């Protein structure tokens, strides 16, 4: 766990952010810092960090005094963590669809790339060994999109999609072979 905290530290102060930085907000997803805006409200001047969200989903403005409490971290720049997680043995997901989907949603809402990748890995494995419900499929797509949006900030979406597809296929083949032995 300390590795993740080291690789993906939370943004602790507005001074850590500058225009052009790629970040991930736990609730709103990936984006790029596009500037600082000062707005006078109730006679008080407040500075806001302006973040353009990926996929043209709008602008997020966070008061700079809340950057410590909001779940903001630098975006991943490569697929190393994804490869590591995908190649670990998948967890067996609960057969009860409500329990399973609640656990997956919790992982996705965490905004933590390790947990998102674990959810993706486990759903990919369930798809091979069992089946996915419509909701499971939607959650799998959501996990993949979250990783794609984050990685695409530093590369092209097609390159990243190809890389992730290759990583997923290699990992699932490895897991399939381990079960057959």
Give an overview of the whole structure.
- Residues 1-14 have low confidence and may be disordered.
- The chain has helices spanning 2-7, 80-86, 97-109, 113-129, 134-152, 157-180; strands at 22-25, 29-41, 44-53, 59-63, 72-74.
- The longest helix has 24 residues, at 157-180.
- Helices cover 48% and strands 19% of the residues.
- It has two domains: 2-74, Thrombin, subunit H, CATH 2.40.10; 80-180, Methane Monooxygenase Hydroxylase, Chain G, domain 1 (Up-down Bundle), CATH 1.20.58.
- Helix 2 (80-86) packs parallel to helix 4 (113-129), helix 3 (97-109) runs parallel beside helix 5 and helix 4 (113-129) crosses helix 5.
- A five-stranded antiparallel β-sheet has the order 4-3-2-1-5.
- It is of the alpha+beta class and 181 residues long.
- The chain has six helices and five strands.
- A hairpin with a 3-residue loop joins strand 1 (22-25) and strand 2.
